Amino acid sequence: MKRSDVVLLVLLIVPFVLLLGRAFLLQVVEYRSHREYVESLRVHVRSLEAPRGRILSRDGVVLAWDEETLIAHATLATDFDEVEKIVGVERKIELVLKGQITVTQAEAARLQRAGVYVEKKYVRRYNGMASHVVGYVDASRIGVAGVERQYDTLLKGKPGYELVSVSPSGRVLGRLLTSSPLPGRDVILTIDSKLQQYAETLLKDSKRKGVILVQSVDGEILALASHPTFDPNVLTSGIEPRQWDRLVNDPDAPLLNRATSALYAVGSVIKPLYAIAYLEKFGEDDFISDCQGYYEYRTSSGRVAGVYKDWYAPGHGLTDLRKALRVSCNVFFYQLALKLGIDEMKSWADKFRISSITGIDLPAEAEGLFPDPSWKQRRYGEIWYPGDTILCGIGQGFIVMTPMQILNFFNTLANRGTCYTPHVLLGTFDPNTKVMEKVESMVSYTVDVKPKTWDFLVKALVEVVSYKDGPADEGTAYQAFKGARFETAGKTGTAEVGKAGEKPHSWFAGFSPVSKPQVVVTVLLENAGTGGEAAAPVARKILERYWELKR
C-alpha cells in the first residue's frame, strides 16, 4: 500500500474513532449526569397578571387605576457582582435578603443578562376621592370594599400566560409562547367629581362626622360623602397588623360608609310619612292642635301617664297639619300618631319601604328598623305602650335608618310615588372590544297616593324653607335658605341620641326644583345640633354648587 494511501486512511479513521469515543463517553460514562441536566431544562408555564380596569367619575376623572411595576427576582444564576454595578450595594443587599426588588425598565434589561428574572406586576392606586364609594383591593388585588368589591368580576380582567424554558440555575433561556392578559373593564360611576369634592370639603369643614348625599331623581348618585374618610392606598399592598388594628378600632370609624351602613334615629325627617298616612286615611287636614310647648298623655281615667315636650318651649299655638310640617311641631305629631295608631303608621312605612335596604350597588348596606308591637314582643318580650307610638310620631324611640334610606324616601316624594333604585354604576367600557355599555335607571317601587295629598305635602315642604312669620310660625329651614335663587322643598330633623351632654343628630332632606324635581339631597351631621342650624345650611351649599355646575 502506498504511503499516501495509508495517510489518507488514517485521516479517515482517526476522526471516526474520536467521534465513537466521544459518543461512548457521553452515552455510557457520563450518561447519568447529562440526562439529569437535560431533564432539568423544563418548560414552565408562568401566569401573567392582568391589569385591573380603571374606575372613573362621570366627568372623566380617574379615581382608581393600575400602576405598572417591574419586579426583579434573584435566581441561582444571578451574578450579584454584576447586580451591584447596576443597582448599587443597598439594593443588591435588599435583593439578597428579600429575594426581589422593584426596578426600572432600563435596569430590567441589564439585570436579565445578569441572571435575574424580571416580571411585570401591577399596583392599585387611588386619587383619594369618594373612598367609601370606590373602595379598595387587598394585597391579592381582590376587591374588598365599595365598587372594587361590588364589580370585582368586571374590573379584574383575564390573566395571560407564557411558556418559558429555565435552566437548572433558574436562568430564563427563552420564551416559547406568550398569551397576553386581557385588561379588565373600566367602570364609570355616576359620581360627579366636582360635586363630590365639594361635598367632602363641606363635611371636613363642618368638623363633624356625617354624610352628604346628592342624587338625580332617576336614581343616579351624584355625590356620596362619608366623613371621616380613609386613604385606600395604604391598604392595597398589605398593611401591618398593628396599623390595621388601629384603623378598625378607631372610635371615629373611618372605614365605615355612614351613608349605607350606619343606622341613626331619624327625627322629624320622617314626619311627611305620617302626613301622607293621615291625609290618605281621613281625607282632610282638619285636625288642629293647641301646642303649649308640651303634651300630656292621659289614660282613659284621666291620669297623666306621661309628659312629652316640644322642641319650641313657648309652644306653637294653634297648629294644623301644614303648619305642623313647616315648624316641625312635635306636640301635633304626638297626637297625630295616636290618632293613626302604630299599625297604620307601620302599614305606610312598609308601602314606602322606608326601612328596607334600598338596593344600592354597594356592599354591606344595612337594613333599618320601623318597629311595631310584634317586633317589640319578639325583641324585648314586652307589650307595646302608647308612649312607644308617641315617640315614633317624631322619628324617635326604636326607629333607626341609614341616610340612604332617607334619601330613598325623599326620592319617592320628589317623584310623587315612584322610587328609583339608587345606583353608582353609570356604565362600563371594555378596552378589548372598545364597547361601552350604559346602565339604565330602574324603578324600585311605586306608592299609590291621591294627587291632592301630593299637592298638599309639597306646598308644606316648600314652606319649611321659605315661610317667615315670627319664631312660632317660621319654617325650620327658612334661615338657612333665605335668599336662595333656586326652589327647594324639604324637611329638617333633630334626632335626640339619649346621651347626656351630647347634641342631637342634625338632618335635612329635600329636593329641587319644586315643580319638576331634578335632584334629591340628604345631609346628616352627627351631634351637630338642630336640623335648621347645622344640616340645612350645608344642604343649601351643596344645592348651590349643584346648580352652579348645571349652568
Describe the structure.
The structure is a single chain. The protein has 551 residues and is an alpha+beta fold. The protein is 38% helix and 23% strand. It is built from 21 helices and 23 strands. The strands form seven sheets. Strands 2, 3, 4, 5, 10, 18 and 19 form a seven-stranded mixed sheet that branches. Strands 12-11-23-22-21 form a five-stranded antiparallel sheet, sandwiched between helices. It has a three-stranded antiparallel sheet with strand order 1-8-9, with no helix packed on it. Helix 12 crosses helix 15. The protein is elongated, with a radius of gyration of 35 Å. The termini are far apart. The relative contact order is 0.11.
Number of helices: 21
**Strand residue content:** 15-25%
Rounded mean pLDDT score: 90
Helix content percent band: 25-40%
Which value, in Å, is the CA radius of gyration?
35 Å
Gap between N and C termini, in Å? 112 Å
Count of strand segments: 23
Supply the helix-strand structural class.
alpha+beta
Can you tell me the overall shape? Answer: elongated
Largest sheet: 7 strands, mixed
Q: Poorly predicted ranges (pLDDT <50, ≥5 residues)? A: none
Brief rundown of the structure:
The chain is α+β, with helices and mostly antiparallel strands. The termini are far apart.
